[in-house]
Amino acid sequence: MLHFDPNDPLDRLLKQELDGQPTSLDEFLGVVMDWIDGEEDFDPGQILRDRGLNKEDILPKAVAYRADFRTYMMEKGLPLDDRFGLCRQLSQLAESEPSAELLRVYCDVLCGIEFLLDEEPPDIDEDYENWLCVAYLNFLSDRDELLAAFTERQKLAGKFAEVVKQKGSPRPVSCDTERKHAILRCFTECFDMPPKGDGNVLLNNLEAYLQIISASPVLRSVEPLILFRLLTRRQSYMCSTPDLKVNLSALWKKDPSSVGRNNGKNYKKYWANLTFFHRLVCLYQEDQEVDLPLCWYGLEQITVLGNFYWNEVDDGREYLGQERLMPFLKPVEELVEDALFSCFENGAGDNIMLEDSGLTFEELEDFQTDPNPLVSRELNKIADYMNDHAIELTNRFSQADTAAVRELCRDVLEQSALSGRVGIEGHVPLFLATINGGLMEFQDYYANQYLIQAGHALTDKPLAGTPEPTE
C-alpha cells in the first residue's frame, strides 16, 4: 500500500504530483537529494524514541508475530524460500480453500516482504532489533489498511450476489416518485434525447420503475444503478415505448470487458455514462435506504466504467474538478501493484550474470540505454525472443539453480540470432546480465499475476468468518 506522510517533504511532493499538481524539476531534484542524504542517517532507534515507544515492549510482539507467521506457512506447505512458488501456491489455495484466515495471511505476504519473508541476518544486534520493531509497526499499519480494503470488496461482493438474484420485477407499490424530474434533468444534461424519444414517455416509465424498485428492499438499495442501466442499455426504449417492461436479469448481464484506448468515440461514450452515473448517485446522497458503495461496486462489476476510470481518468489526470473524484474501490490489480512485491530479496543484487561480470548496475543501465544502433538492435532482438517465449523461459528460470541460470542466459543469447560478433564484441557479459534481468522481470510479473488471481478469489465472493487483524 502507498502511504503519504504529510510531514515528509518527499511524500508531500509525490502526493502533489499524483493529485495533478506538477512541480518544477529543480524543486523535485532538491527534495530527492535531501531525502537521500537523510536516508544515510536512518536510525530506527531514534524513530522509536520519536514515537514515544519502547523497544522492550515491541520486540517480543514482533518476534512472536514473525514466528507464528512462519509456522503457519510451514503447516500449510507454503514455501518461504521460493517466493514465486509461494505466489503460485497462494493462488491455488485461494481458489480451492478461500477463507477469512487465508485473506489475512495473503495480506501479510503482500505487506510483510521485508519483515516476514526476508531472512534474518546471522548476527542479531541492537540495530537489527530496532529495525525489526519499526518494520513490525509499519507492517501492521500497511496490513490493516490493505486488509480493510480487501474485506470491503469481499463484503460488497456478498451483497451484490443477492442483488443479481433478482430476476423478475415485483408488483409496483405506491411511493413518492417526484425524483423522476431530477433524474430526467440529469439524463438530458448528459445525453441527447433519442430521435423518437419523448420526455413525457420517459417520465412515465421512470415513475413506473420507481414504484417497482420500491417494492423490494434489495432493489431499493441499488436504485441508482438500476435506473442507470435502464437509461443506458435500454435508452431508446425508455424514451419512446410507453409502459416499457424490462426483465431485470438483462440489467445484470456484464458488458464487454475491454476498454479500447485512443478510441475517441468510445472514450466520449464512457465519460458521458460515468458522468451521468455520478450525477445520478448524487441525487441519493441523503437516502438512507440506498447503499451507495454497493451501487459503485455493482457498476464496476457489470460495466467497463471502473476500468475506464482507473486506466483513463484517474491515471491520465485528463479531468480536473470534483467530477473526476469518483469513489470506485481500488481494484485488486492496483492493490497488488502498490505492494511492490518482488521475488528477489536483493533486487539487482540477485542478478547472477551481473555479479559474474564484476560490473555495476549503473554500467548495465548505461549499456541498455546506449545510443549505438548496433547495440540497440541486438537488445531488441533479445527482447523480441524473450517476449515470444516468456512463459517457457519463466518456468525454466523459476526452477533453475545458479548453474542452470547461467546456462539459460547463454541459451537465450544463442537463440536470439544475434548478428555475429559485430556490434556485440566485448559486450557479451552485459548482454547476459540484461537477459538475467529480463528473466527476473518475467518472474516478478507472473508472481504478481498469481497474487492478483488470489486477490480476486478471496474477494469476489463471501468468505466464511471475518478476517481479524492480529498483533
Topology (elements, then pairings):
Elements: H1 9-18, H2 25-39, H3 44-50, H4 55-75, H5 83-96, H6 100-111, H7 113-117, H8 126-163, H9 179-190, H10 199-213, H11 217-220, H12 223-233, H13 235-240, H14 248-251, H15 264-282, H16 292-302, H17 305-314, H18 332-339, H19 352-357, H20 361-368, H21 373-388, H22 390-398, H23 402-415, H24 428-459
Helix pairs in contact: 3-8, 4-8, 5-24, 6-8, 6-24, 8-16, 9-10, 9-15, 12-15, 18-24, 21-24, 22-24, 23-24
- Classification by helices and strands: mainly alpha
Largest beta sheet, briefly? none
* Computed Rg: 27 Å
User: Mean pLDDT, rounded to whole units?
Assistant: 86
What characteristic shape results from the CA principal axes?
globular
Distance between the termini: 19 Å
Number of strands: 0
**What percent of residues adopt helix (DSSP H or I)?**
55-70%
- What is the percentage of strand-forming residues? under 5%
- Total helices: the number is 24
Number of domains: 3
Order of helices and strands: HHHHHHHHHHHHHHHHHHHHHHHH
Poorly predicted tracts of residues: 316-323
Keywords:
471 residues; mainly alpha; 3 domains; 24 helices; globular
In short:
This protein has helices at residues 9-18, 25-39, 44-50, 55-75, 83-96, 100-111, 113-117, 126-163, 179-190, 199-213, 217-220, 223-233, 235-240, 248-251, 264-282, 292-302, 305-314, 332-339, 352-357, 361-368, 373-388, 390-398, 402-415, 428-459. The protein is built from 24 helices and no strands.
